[in-house]
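Notes to self after the Tuesday call (sharing in case useful).
The group wants a holo model before anyone commits to mutagenesis around the pocket. I volunteered. Ligand is FE2/S2 (inorganic) cluster. Logging inputs and output together so the record is complete.
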Amino acid sequence: MPTLRFDGQAVTTQDGETVLEALLRHGLAVPHGCRSGICQSCLLKAREGHIPAPAQAGLKPALAEQDYLLACRCVPDEDMVLEIPSAGTLRTPAEIAAIEPLGGEVIRLVLTPEAALDYRPGQYVTLWRDEQLGRSYSLASLPDEGQSLEFHVRVIPGGQFSGWLAGEARPGDRLEVQEAAGSCVYTPALRDANLLLVGTGTGLAPLWGIVREALRQGHRGQIRVMHGAVECDGLYLHEALKRLAAQHDNLHYHASVLRPEGCSAVDERPLDELVVETIGDFSDWHSYLCGAPELVNQLRRRIFLAGARMDAICADAFLPTAPAKT
Ligand SMILES: Cc1cc2nc3c(=O)[nH]c(=O)nc-3n(C[C@H](O)[C@H](O)[C@H](O)COP(=O)(O)OP(=O)(O)OC[C@H]3O[C@@H](n4cnc5c(N)ncnc54)[C@H](O)[C@@H]3O)c2cc1C
Ligand code: FES
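Result:
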């Protein structure tokens, strides 16, 4: 079995084991999150050894060329020498400019990075509180609005990152922002397409960026934004989306609330029913699905079965950090 050299130690891998699993099994500290090749918080650099192709899927070409790899996707086929990339090469220091309530369990976080971040609306970044604690959050801001970055964070009681943000973090505190990733973005080639933007909870964050970017670029097809929440206060951009829809004939906003007592202008159908019954035939729709993994995966299947092309469905499941295996 291949041997890994990391942080001055030699680690022998087991059959079919990923680099991340092998290093964690030996008690070595490797930052990680989703363990699914999405969040990119397990990025390592190979000093020696062959990098299997799946370990670089989804990485920017510039990173792949410099021998970066995702440890959770790398099943080594020969000995490797690996290291954690130095923070300065991939991360930009940033200061917290604002933390404020948005509605329900959601807070708005605004960061001022030291240098402008290269990103497209709809992408996500990993925010690092320290060397080990990083979590992915979708960008709700537009690069054209200035250098500030906006995020919508659902506060999870006891959550290492979101709980810290809501309880302890203050404006002026510093974080690091890793390079943007993700392919759920708007492109001018879609200007005449019908766009369906579906999000649960803070799954609205990337959609808020995408819808404003599409309108900014003069989108000509229909746009339907569908947001799902458990209670009314979870519709944290309800008024802003209603205002935006009133300003654009081709934009329609739908809200689905599971417990709708006291809400106005909402649909009581579960979000997936609302989506499927409103659109019917998905063959000429381009869909963006963001938020809770179960809903994203279920809707992807239903939309596909209702006529959508797989390459016209963009899905960002907000996978939680996977617990350590015992
Ligand atoms: C690509 C991507 C984009 C994301 N974008 C956003 C975003 O824009 N906004 C946002 O709020 N989050 C987003 N997330 C989720 C985010 O990365 C964190 O997982 C989340 O904020 C929890 O982190 P934490 O450190 O606060 O909680 P942790 O300390 O990781 O978890 C604390 C406890 O809560 C549980 N838990 C974690 N997440 C959930 C959940 N969703 N529901 C119920 N229990 C949970 C954990 O299993 C654990 O037991 C995204 C995730 C990915 C992969
Ligand atoms: S990409 Fe490897 S842990 Fe998320």
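Two things stood out.
Residues 3-85 form a domain with the Ubiquitin-like (UB roll) fold (CATH 3.10.20.30).
Helices lie at 19-25, 61-65, 87-90, 162-167, 204-216, 238-247, 271-279, 293-305.
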